[in-house]
Each structure stands twice: as structure tokens, then as C-alpha cells.
Design brief:
Layout: H1 2-18, H2 25-39, H3 48-54, H4 79-86, E1 94-98, E2 101-106, E3 109-112, E4 116-121, E5 124-133, E6 137-142, E7 145-150
Antiparallel strand pairs: 1-2, 2-3, 4-5, 5-6, 6-7
Length: 155
Amino acid sequence: MKALSYIPLFVLPAAALLGQDISTPQKRMASLDLARALLTTQQTIETAERLEGKNPFSPKVPVTEERSAVVPVAFAVADRDRLLLLAPQVTPSGSVFLGDTALLLFGQKRLKVGDTIPIVFQGVTYALQISAIERTTFTLRLNNEEITRPIKPVK
């Protein structure tokens, strides 16, 4: 019986605290208006031509506006700077030494010292020459400039 007399001491304060979560009518209406706006779908009226233009399987080629070709201005970039931009694009998977010949591996492709690697950068093809291959590094040459890079990039 004593335990039943303590129940109101715990229930009444808990009910009083939970009862304070009731919001004002203005806040409830704002929440309901937001819910209605999110749940209603807006109908879009599309013309047949516009729908046909969006169809990726349409045999018609959409007519696009011709824009004047923007020709990039070629800046005078030194070979060293150009080599610094091109070298990160050369990512070998490893190196191997067969006898006294060092080979740089690019998947199934094997390149030795003196071979060239064509790199396309900003629409221009550059021929980077492999000038040295070590155990963990390789050296690339563009014209008279050289740069040494690690075979496995440091993360």
C-alpha cells in the first residue's frame, strides 16, 4: 500500500513537464502550412516539342545556338613550368630491372629509358621523354628541362 501512495509523486510532475510541449496555434498552423506545401505536387504543362527535346532516344538532333569559338590565349610558359604541370599526369604502376635494362611499367605497357610518353594538355600534345629510371624514382625530360618523380606517389 505504501508503494501506491508514492505513484502520484512521480506521475504528476512528469505529466506537468510533458504538458508544456503544446505549441501555440500560430506555430502549429505554420507547421501544417509547410507540410501541405511539401506534400502537394505542382503540375507542369510541357509542350510536345519540349518533351521531344528531352527524350534521349529521339532521332531528331536538337538545334543548338552557334557560339563564337573562344580561343584560349597562349601564355608564354617556360618549359620548366610546363613540365611541372605535365609530370603529375604520368603515373607508372612500378618499375622492373631485367639484367641491366630498367623498365617503367604502366599496366601492361613497358617503357625504357629514351622512350617518349605523349601527354595531351589543353589541346596540345607534348612528348615527355624518360631520361632515367631508378628503383623508386624516374626522370622525365621536356626539351632541356628535367624533373624527377617518385614511382609510387606519396599519399
